[in-house]
TrEMBL record:
UniProt KW keywords: DNA-binding, Repressor, Transcription, Transcription regulation
PANTHER family per the UniProt record, alphabetical: LACI-RELATED TRANSCRIPTIONAL REPRESSOR, RIBOSE OPERON REPRESSOR
Keyword check for DNA-binding: yes
Any Pfam family the entry gives: Peripla_BP_3
Record-linked InterPro entries: Cro/C1-type_HTH (IPR001387), HTH_LacI (IPR000843), LacI/GalR-like_sensor (IPR046335), Lambda_DNA-bd_dom_sf (IPR010982), Peripla_BP_I (IPR028082)
Residue span(s) of domain HTH lacI-type: 6-60
Organism: Candidatus Mediterraneibacter faecavium
Name used for this protein in its record: LacI family transcriptional regulator
Keyword Zinc: no
Start and end residues of each HTH cro/C1-type domain: 9-50
GO molecular function, one term: DNA-binding transcription factor activity
PROSITE patterns for this protein: HTH_CROC1, HTH_LACI_2
């Protein structure tokens, strides 16, 4: 037999409150005393009430949807970060609408318009394409992860410390020259801190170094070709020197490792490799790869915590918006594996 669906009328009869009061419990709980909220909450449990989500959305305009904009799902860091963001549903109760923008501003703006049409309550943005000032203009809470963040809240790794850790490990591994491969990124991007960290260590200890700052593409095919060019350059300039290579992420470190294996059948003694992020590919590579570990699960949870607090504040009768964006910095953890001495 079908179980009878519990209605607001049933809850009102059970508690002795009016249907208006019951409605306020769902749509404006702050307007009720804590005692009355508790009475209604107990009634819902006793009556085994199952909420009509669509009805609540129509009544309150609150969707409990969060939009997520990521650059792509090819990079293992982004796919793992998305996995960790989605897992916060159990803790915060928000659902996610996800778009991959592939670093195309016009495409990402269309995606954001689509998200706003779904009446999202907030956004998490990993893509660096759209300036934070523009993101703030949408008037919903926004938290950025590893991107320019002047006008929005953010959670970032301490990239400078990550650069120091990577360069220090390669220096102690006896490398003759340190190579840092990264994009030609602006100072406003958190990842620029890695470059400063490498340079400071090398200059402090008089270690020769080279920065190779170029875009490595957005697909495996582009990555493979660009990183092969990097190997050819290093073979030509430093053929017999022990090269310590700090790659911008674990995906690119894995491509470099695979290319060296295809060329030599092994990792040559003249190469030491360290990646950045500690996504699963670093552990699953043909040789487990040393990496500067971003605490991805911590970053995802902190981003959702900051966003949730802002979204919940907006639901109060007298909300107090943030006067300044909140910026949280998470320390990296150096993980030594088999690609460094």
């Amino acid at each position: 037999m079908k179980t009878k669906k519990v209605t607001f009328t049933d809850i009102a009869k059970y508690t002795g409150f009016s249907k208006t009061t019951i409605s306020r419990y769902f749509n404006d709980p702050d307007s009720l005393t804590l005692e009355n909220q508790q009475k209604i909450a107990e009634a819902l449990e006793n009556l085994d009430y199952k909420e009509n989500k669509v009805g609540r959305i129509l009544a309150s305009g609150r969707t409990e949807f969060v939009g997520v904009i990521i650059p792509n799902l090819y990079m293992h860091y982004y796919s793992e970060m998305l996995n960790q963001i989605l897992s916060t549903y159990e803790k915060y109760g928000y659902k996610f609408l996800v778009f991959a923008g592939n670093e195309k501003a016009d495409v990402e703006r269309k995606y954001i318009e689509e998200l706003m049409a779904y009446n999202i309550e907030g956004m998490i943005v990993l893509s660096p394409t759209i300036p934070s000032e523009e993101l703030a203009s949408y008037h919903v809470p926004v938290v950025g992860i590893e991107r320019e963040d002047q006008y929005i809240s953010s959670v970032n790794t301490d990239n400078y410390m990550g650069g120091v850790q990577a360069a220090s490990l390669l220096r102690k591994s006896g490398c003759d020259i340190l190579i840092h491969v990264n994009g030609n990124i602006p100072d406003s991007a958190p990842a620029s801190g890695r470059i400063r960290g490498v340079v400071d260590v090398c200059e402090e200890y008089n270690v020769p170094y080279e920065l190779i700052l170029r875009h490595l593409g957005n697909s495996f095919e582009e990555n493979r070709e660009k990183i092969k060019e990097v190997i050819d350059l290093l073979e030509q300039k430093y053929p017999d020197q022990k090269k310590g290579i700090f790659m911008p992420n674990d995906t690119h470190a894995n491509v470099l490792l695979n290319l060296l294996f295809q060329r030599y059948g092994r990792l040559p003694e003249t190469y030491q490799i360290i990646g950045f992020d500690n996504s699963p590919i670093s552990r699953e590579a043909v040789i487990p790869t040393s990496t500067v570990g971003q605490q991805i699960s911590v970053i995802a949870n902190e981003a959702m915590k900051i966003l949730s607090e802002q979204m919940e504040e907006r639901k109060k009768r007298r909300p107090e918006p943030l006067k300044e964006p909140v910026h949280k910095v998470i320390p990296p953890i150096l993980i030594r594996r088999e690609t460094t001495a």
